[in-house]
Write a structure and sequence with these properties.
The chain has 297 residues and is α+β, with helices and mostly antiparallel strands. It has helices spanning 22-30, 32-42, 45-56, 64-71, 88-92, 139-143, 146-152, 193-196, 202-205, 273-280; strands spanning 5-8, 13-16, 109-111, 116-121, 157-162, 169-171, 177-178, 182-184, 208-214, 220-226, 234-236, 249-253, 258-263, 269-271, 284-287, 292-296. The chain is globular.
Length: 297
């Protein structure tokens, strides 16, 4: 397996990703026996529910301290001390201190919805080299609507990949009035590049949710959360029909790596040029929730 590298906007350097569960992922997606287990068991929601149940047990607390040490997490950012969590899952979807994730206050600025490794594209219809060349992005299958896909195929798209080591709450990238969240059922494949390099279609096969955010200057923005292996659940914490501010919490993922996606109507936003140029080379950009990812036109 080739290493996963990304650009870290916090350090200004290209870094190698320390992949959580790397041996497991390499076996499941690269080994013939692993692939049998993947399709027979691992991709199935029941497997992830079982794993989530394990991470909810009080005995899972013993995993918290080693996890923090192994991945060098800053406990100064935590809203609560590590010893206060009743389970590993509770620690996993922890809240952070508000001052640790300041939201860009410029009213014309769009912000990243999550702490993640981000890819951005000017036109959703032109994505054909994510993680590996030759894999075409299928917007109609992602949205399960040819009509909706036609409306957004020439609009901008931002894909944000959260790793297990990341802060796992997701937020609104701009102000607006959100609809209720619609769930599209599906299996739970991994969304790690280890898996997506082999089959990008996992993004539009996996269980996912879609929310429509009605905005003043960008029309209707589509917000998606995509489940993945060992994601116990996608929890929405916002109230539909009530106006939200930019950076307001939308929800959280229980244990596991996962992704969010934002789609804009054509001609409404301008994404950061450096973000776009790196994405064109399939290089992800790591940035925190609240940092600028573009601006309203």
């Amino acid at each position: 397996m080739s290493d996963i590298h990304f650009y870290n906007s916090l350090t200004g350097k290209t870094e190698k990703e320390n992949v959580y569960g790397e041996a497991f992922l390499s076996f499941a997606y690269g080994n013939p026996l692993g692939k049998m287990a993947l399709h027979a068991l691992i991709k199935r929601p029941l497997f992830s529910l079982w794993y989530g149940w394990r991470m909810n047990r009080p005995t899972s607390r013993k995993l918290i301290a080693p996890f923090i040490e192994t991945y060098g997490l800053s406990t100064d950012d935590f809203a609560d001390p590590p010893e206060s969590y009743a389970s590993f899952n509770e620690f996993f979807y922890r809240k952070l201190k508000a001052q640790s994730r300041p939201v860009n206050v410029d009213p014309r600025t769009l912000v990243f919805p999550a702490d993640a490794r981000h890819l951005a594209f000017e036109k959703a219809s032109m994505i054909d080299s994510v993680f590996v060349k030759g894999q075409r992005f299928d917007l109609a299958r992602l949205l399960q609507s040819d009509k909706l896909a036609a409306a957004y195929e020439h609009g901008s798209l931002v894909l944000s990949r959260l790793c297990p080591v990341d802060y796992h709450r997701f937020h609104f990238p701009l102000a607006g009035v959100p609809s209720t969240s619609e769930t599209i059922p599906g299996p739970l494949f991994s969304v790690s590049p280890i898996a997506l390099r082999r089959k990008l279609a996992y993004l539009w096969q996996n269980k996912r949710t879609i929310t429509r955010l009605e905005t003043t200057h960008c029309g209707t923005v589509l917000l998606l959360e995509i489940g993945a292996t060992c994601v116990g659940s996608i929890q929405q914490t916002y109230t539909s029909g009530r106006e939200v501010l930019k950076g307001a919490e939308k929800g959280f993922f229980a244990f596991g790596g996962s992704s969010t996606m934002v789609l804009f109507e054509p001609g409404t936003v301008r994404l950061n040029p450096d973000l776009l140029s790196r994405s064109a080379e399939a290089i992800e950009t790591y940035a925190h929730m609240g940092m600028a990812m573009g601006s309203i036109i």
